Amino acid sequence: MKLMVVGGGGREHAIIKKLKENKDVEKIYALPGNGGIAMDATCVDIGAKEIEKIVEFAVSEKIDYAVVAPDDPLVLGAVDALTEAGIPCFGPDKKAAIIEGSKVFSKNLMKKYHIPTAEYEVFSDMDAALKYLDTAPIPTVIKADGLALGKGVIIAMTREEAKAAVKSMMEDKVFGKSGDNIVIEEFLTGPEVSVLAFTDGYVVKPMVSSMDHKRAGDNDTGLNTGGMGTVAPNPYYTKDIADECMEKIFLPTIEAMKSEGRTFKGCLYFGLMLTEKGPKVIEYNCRFGDPETQVVLPLMESDLLTVMKAVTEEKLSETEVKFGSGSACCVIMASKGYPESYEKGFVMTIPSEISGNVYVAGAKLEDGKLLTNGGRVLGATATDENLAGAIEKA
Ligand code: AMP
Ligand code: GLY
User: Fold this and answer.
1) Ligand 2 nearest atom to the CA of residue 289, by list position
2) For 19-44, what is each residue's pLDDT tens digit?
3) Does residue 100's CB lie within 6 angstroms of at least one atom of ligand 2?
4) 303 Cα to the center of ligand 2, angstroms
């Protein structure tokens, strides 16, 4: 089989490595991939948002199965375009991807179907939002409606900060049209859990839970980042909590999307907070998480391609999704200075004895050398019987 994976980060590298375990896979193309992914797939210089070119390539190369991993192409309708061209693929269509593409949509969905989440108000008018903030409970959370490269959420500890955030989104348009509408929501506290789940629209099969660490420094210090490391399973996510989430969050979400005529097929990411009043949804993503995927997939015992195809063919109920009982830890290596200013172009060497568990996020190949090409450059994952062992090895 010839496969194609759209995307080019550590998450896509982890997906590609897992897909390669299937012996029917002869070739994998990565669009655009990166210098590290090039060790495991054939990289093609087509950007993840260039939908027309992606479809043209898939058709001309007679791709048997495609995986669209990042949020942007999913929200732009890459799966719709590929399906229309006769290429079977993994990922939600545009109508369903709105669950991540619009926070106003997802908040209203949760309200309508009684899915637990933070209290909120939606604003399309800046003055109304600023007036609301005169009396809103503080701290508060300001969210741009649309995609914003993972930066569209501001936790405001004071009224002034909250107002500045609203102005930056609605007046200065720092996130462009994504800030035309905003959500202002209740500040929640508690441990955060990421649960990625396969769903074909009929059944939902959660993967092992995980936990993202977003601060740049050790011991949860420093600036917020796109994610500096992950562990799985999440130590706070007990069997009882998992059962409660299935009943009150996962199944109701799948049903809600179906009722709205937006059946979700793919990987649905539940960003949860375990509050004193029970688990609540912080966010939905329409895709695998990054760097959650880098700890979840190494623990997966079932064949990824088989499960993905079962999702596409709506046969997930008959397909086993099995995870090992061990733990995994992924530590991200970043260029000094990330997430602020940093240099690129450092030579990287990945020793072959560990390369199996290294996922390259930002690198390019130049004259046979692997050079860093971003802030976060790679993730090193280790698995072990328990979490302490996995952390030590990673
Ligand atoms: P999001 O992009 O919606 O995941 O938000 C990014 C991060 O902001 C989350 O992972 C949380 O740590 C934090 N966050 C989002 N919403 C809230 C909230 N209502 N209360 C507290 N923290 C939040
Ligand atoms: N790790 C958070 C995300 O993938 O959105």
Assistant:
1) 4
2) 999 999 999 999 999 999 999 999 99
3) no
4) 23
Q: Cis peptide leading into 92, omega within 30 of 0? A: no
Ligand 2 close to Cβ of residue 285 (< 6 A): yes
Is 192 touching ligand 1 by the criterion CB < 6 Å?
A: yes
Q: Are 321 and 196 in contact (CB under 8 A)?
A: no
Cβ(118) – ligand 1 distance below 6 Å: yes
Q: Which of 185, 187, 394 is nearest to 291 (CA)?
A: 394
CB 32 within 8 A of CB 43: yes
Q: Which helix (H) or strand (E) holds 312?
A: helix 304-312
In whole angstroms, what is the distance from residue 55 CA to residue 47 CA? 12
Phi and psi angles of residue 61, each rounded to the nearest 5 degrees, phi first: -90, 0
pLDDT tens column, 321-336? 999 999 999 999 999 9
Contact 92, 198 (CB under 8 A): no
Which residue's CA is the closest to the ligand 2 atom numbered 4? 289
pTM of structure? 0.96
Task: State the Cα–Cα distance between residues 79 and 91, nearest whole angstrom.
Answer: 6
